[in-house]
Write a structure and sequence with these properties.
With 473 residues, the protein is α/β, with parallel strands linked by helices. 33% of the residues lie in helices and 15% in strands. The chain is built from 15 helices and 17 strands. Strands 11, 12, 13, 14, 15, 16 and 17 form a seven-stranded mixed beta sheet that branches. Helix 4 packs across helix 8, helix 8 runs antiparallel to helix 9 and helix 13 packs antiparallel against helix 14. The N terminus is likely disordered.
């Protein structure tokens, strides 16, 4: 069971409170770096070995628990993250390592990540981490939200935006990767999905530049939903730690940001972001937990305008977190057709013609927040007509319940907004707007964002308004 495939859906539906308000269960699978134990089933807010009590931070409580295991009062099997150095036993060396991690002294840290198949692995790396690379739109934003933008030296899929959202990375002054930044052409244009030779060239160039000052690449933060590097990892990143995390899921994004912030030494920002996010998740889960089954709306999810998110896609979870029912659970034909964890491109309107009992269509669309000069209506209109996406749904009864949710929203904001749109009788938009206002004050990628100056979500009413105004583009 992968970090990207955790039992978060069941937890969200049941509103189980385990760690910091959210139950986060995952498995740590064995590889050459892990002790030769059976698979471990642990829950943790901060997925790093040494965090023995599984909460959101590393502190004295973890050392106390480790000592209790050494004294035979507690069992390692019950607290698997207590084995800080991952040598298969718990002893004084683990306490010594935790002391170094707390003090942010140089050492090796063992973080929980994913392999290419989504299984959990231990990823050792030098600590604190600096000179980081990111790959995947969601990962760049997660890194920013963790307070770690200052560590980024390369965004390997190209900067997705030329304006606001990724500005903290651009402004850090350390970005070494060629690409298009604020409209300026650098050495060469870096495509969103570069080929192996380009990746080799870029990573090699960064490596050489860092070596000139006796530095090195610390880690690649990789979005599990972004598959562009999967074939190159062993070849290009053999000597570079790769921490793959399922940040497309709005809840997992919160915990990923906490982990990244810890690894880079940005504890205060990352802990604040995680804590405030968890408060929102708790509120929403509590609000929707008692929705009667016959009152729950169903939904399908889209990505890239015209791709239906398959049943197990990370992008297909948000609706369930907010009290709705994935359509594949009530339509066997649909479930069979869209099995898997990726997405399936629509080719003609007939693809959806049989599914007349869909309640909501939720389109995950990534766009920069600040949308001048066209304004919100211009962006909504462009998204609605992009690739003629609307033609696949305009003849269905649910057409007026088609929603666009900005995919780059902080996880908690995404959940609050989606809840207010899909389960409005249980989470009102006034609450969602208060979350937007709150996060605009402290969230690193979201500062200054408001409903008036940014693209956060779009409804059918927004589309009609824009269309009647001439569909500004």
């Amino acid at each position: 069971m992968a970090l990207g495939k955790m039992q978060l859906i069941a937890i969200a539906v049941a509103a189980v409170v385990v760690v910091g308000g959210i139950g986060v269960a995952f498995l740590v699978n064995n590889d050459d770096s892990n002790p030769p134990n059976d698979e471990l089933n642990v829950s943790a807010g901060l997925a790093v070995f040494g965090n023995a009590n599984n909460d959101l931070k590393l502190d004295t409580a973890d050392k106390t628990l480790i000592q209790e295991i050494i004294d035979g009062k507690k069992k390692l099997a019950d607290y698997p993250l207590a084995d800080a150095d991952c040598d298969g036993s718990v002893d004084a060396d683990d306490i010594a390592l935790v002391n170094k991690l707390i003090a942010k002294e140089s050492c090796t840290v063992n973080a929980v990540g994913l392999d290419v198949n989504g299984k959990q692995i231990n990823v050792p790396m030098k600590f604190p981490v600096d000179n980081t690379l990111t790959f995947g739109t969601n990962m760049a934003l997660t890194t920013i939200n963790s307070g770690s933008a200052s560590t980024v030296v390369g965004v390997l899929d190209g900067l997705s935006y030329t304006g606001y959202a990724q500005k903290p990375i651009v402004d850090n002054g350390k970005l070494l990767v060629p690409g298009k930044i604020y409209g300026e052409e650098h050495d060469e244009k870096l495509d969103r999905t570069p080929d192996r030779s380009t990746i080799m060239k870029i990573v090699g160039s960064i490596d050489v530049k860092l070596a000139s000052t006796d530095e090195e690449i610390g880690v690649l933060f990789l979005d599990h939903s972004a598959k562009g590097l999967d074939d190159y990892l062993d070849f290009v990143f053999d000597d570079i730690p790769v921490l793959r995390l399922a940040v497309a899921d709005p809840i997992e994004e919160i915990y990923a940001s906490r982990l990244i912030g810890f690894l880079t030494g940005n504890d205060e920002i990352a802990l604040n972001y995680a804590s405030k996010s968890i408060e929102v998740i708790e509120h929403v889960l509590d609000a929707v937990k008692d929705i009667p089954e016959d009152k729950k709306n169903n939904y399908i999810s889209l990505t890239m305008s015209v791709h239906i998110c398959n049943n197990d896609s990370d992008y297909n979870r948000t609706g369930k977190y907010v009290g709705a029912v994935p359509y594949y659970t009530i339509n066997n034909e649909f479930a069979t057709k869209y099995a898997g964890s990726g997405s399936t491109k629509l080719t003609e309107p007939e693809n959806t013609s049989n599914y007349t009992d869909i309640d909501y269509v939720i389109s995950n669309r990534s766009a920069d927040y600040m949308i001048e000069p066209y304004g919100k209506e211009g962006v909504i209109y462009k998204e609605w007509v992009k690739k003629s996406a609307y033609t696949y749904f305009e003849n269905l009864p649910c057409y007026e319940n088609m929603l666009y949710i900005n995919n780059i929203l902080p996880g908690a904001v995404k959940i609050a907004v989606t809840a207010a749109l899909v389960s409005p009788d249980y989470v009102d938009m006034e609450y969602a707007e208060s979350v937007i206002e709150d996060f605009s004050e402290f969230c690193e990628s979201f500062k200054g964002v408001t409903l008036e100056n940014s693209y956060i979500y779009g409804t059918y009413e927004d589309y009609i308004s824009a269309k009647s105004a001439g569909g500004t583009q």
